[in-house]
Amino acid sequence: MAEGGFFSRMGNLWKGFLSLFVGNLEKDNPEAVYEAAINTRKEKYKSLKKAVSGIIVQRNKLSAELEEKSRAIADLDLQIAAAVDQEEDDVALVLLQRKEELTARIAAVDRELIHAKEQAEDAKASIVAFQAEIEKLEREKDAMLAKKEHAEARIQIQETLSGLSMDADIKALDNVREHIDRLHAEADVSTEIGDSSLNSKLDKIKAQAGTATARAQLEALKKARDSEKAGATEAAGVKKSM
Length: 242
Known about the structure:
The protein is mainly alpha-helical. It is 94% helix and 0% strand.
């Protein structure tokens, strides 16, 4: 009993595994699944057309038989009338019996024909509906495959964008950007503190000293010139008084 339960559980497990395996194959090959479903319906469509053709053949046979029996009834009416006119009672009785049998058969054929016509119409409607279902499935296949392709493209774009910041080249670019920013900051610092550096101060002192020396020399020249002018004026006054 326990052994049977074990094998039963193993069988269920195997069936479940096969179901998952087949399910994964279907997901990986949606086009093949659609094609299989469409082809199956096309085969059933062919079988349905054959069945409908049989119904239509039977309908046509019944219709032809009804016409034939109706003509036979008309002929019998003429024969019966002739037999009565000729007082051939025995012949008239046989003909009347045949007419009765034909009338019963015509009634049966008429009922069968009505049923056959209804079946034929229903079958033709089923063919049209089945054909429409196949065409709808083909359109659905095209739409779903296009939708799948679009979704896969979107997923690929999203995966590419989500993994972009983790790429090595992006990290390298970030490092380069940071390095360039630091160099630029260092250049700004050098410019800002350049005026207060020792060399800059020495240069300013030298410039100021040079300017002071030149001014002293200019003042000495001016004084010497003024002295010369004063001496020349005094000499000219002495000569005049003499």
